[in-house]
Specification:
10 strands, 8-stranded parallel beta sheet, TIM Barrel, alpha/beta, binds NADP nicotinamide-adenine-dinucleotide phosphate, two-stranded antiparallel sheet, 276 residues
Length: 276
């Protein structure tokens, strides 16, 4: 598995998303088995959030990584409505319990809300000092949000910005991606296979997949990974995680990229950040 450096740690360029996982008892065992298989395949970065299933996703992740906590790199997120100084600390402690761990590897502010950034950053600093988190970052922050964050005391310690990125949503290539690269902030691409919907039936992606004898999802992931970032596809089927892990080794050539550009043109001007 290819890797990148994030806040002094080496992490795989592909991880596992967990939105909508843990919601049903009937699929619980297979979702746990899928996450474990993903870890075996090198998808050791696992992304969750207190919001997902009101904590059910975190609880399932905690169960799945039981006995192999050291192999996993855990990312979770505080809701903006909890992101006050004390609220962030309380939310983190609740996440730690559900995740059955003593420390979260990367703790993100899920999106901007009513609490001032300096308050949330102070909470992150307190959690770092107490050893409850190992790094912090943000999600759904556009360039102006990042600039404001970097002007906040302690804000330059932000390790990552998790944003929507796939061929249908590539506005970040114009400004946010270069900004993050220049400022040492790792970009994490969410919904890299377009939530499994329209993108998987895209004629352009299917054509490229056919040329390489791979799946459309693998093309979508390899397309994301041509940029220096971490992509976090969610899969609940074992065959999907195995396939996704193999996408890290797929290299798209100039003809492939031109075909994808034709169907999904790169941005020529600033677009405000898309989010789900
Ligand atoms: P996604 O990963 O783009 O798509 C997930 C869908 O794609 C699922 O239906 C999955 O099917 C399917 N899929 C995955 N691999 C596949 C493969 N190899 N072949 C065919 N289908 C495949 O969408 P997402 O869940 O929205 O985004 C990924 C993760 O990013 C989330 O789970 C979450 O952790 C994070 N996220 C963060 C934010 C944020 O605001 N920070 C927002 C959205 C998402 P199966 O489940 O059937 O395998």
């Amino acid at each position: 598995m290819k890797t990148v450096e994030m806040a002094g740690r080496t992490v795989p360029v592909l991880g596992q998303g967990t939105w909508n996982i843990g919601d049903s008892n009937s699929s619980r065992a297979s979702e746990i088995a899928t996450l474990r298989r993903g870890i075996e395949c090198g998808l050791t970065l696992v992304d969750t959030a207190e919001m997902y299933g009101s904590g059910r996703s975190e609880s399932l992740v905690g169960e799945a990584i039981g006995g192999q906590r050291d192999r996993a790199y855990l990312v979770t997120k505080v809701l903006p409505s909890n992101a006050s100084l004390d609220g962030t600390v309380r939310a983190c402690e609740a996440s730690l319990k559900r995740l059955r761990t003593e420390a979260i590897d990367l703790y993100l502010l899920h999106w901007r809300g009513r609490y001032p950034l300096h308050e949330t950053v102070r909470a992150f600093e307190r959690l770092l000092n107490e050893g409850k988190i190992r790094a912090w970052g943000v999600s759904n922050f556009d360039v102006d949000d990042m600039e404001e964050l970097f002007a906040t005391p302690g804000g330059t310690e932000c390790a990552a910005n998790q944003v929507l990125y796939n061929p249908e949503h590539r506005g970040i290539e114009y400004d946010l991606l270069p900004w993050c690269r220049q400022n040492g902030v790792t970009v994490m691409a969410y919904s890299p296979v377009g939530q499994g919907g329209r993108l998987l039936s895209s004629a352009a992606l299917r054509c490229v997949a056919g040329r390489h004898g791979v799946s459309t999802a693998q093309v979508a992931l390899a397309w994301c990974l041509r940029q220096p970032l971490v992509a976090i596809p969610k899969a609940s089927a074992v065959r999907h995680v195995v396939e996704n892990a193999a996408a890290a080794g797929l290299k798209l050539d100039a003809e492939d990229l031109a075909a994808i550009d034709k169907a999904y043109p790169p941005p020529q001007r600033k677009h405000s950040l898309d989010m789900l």
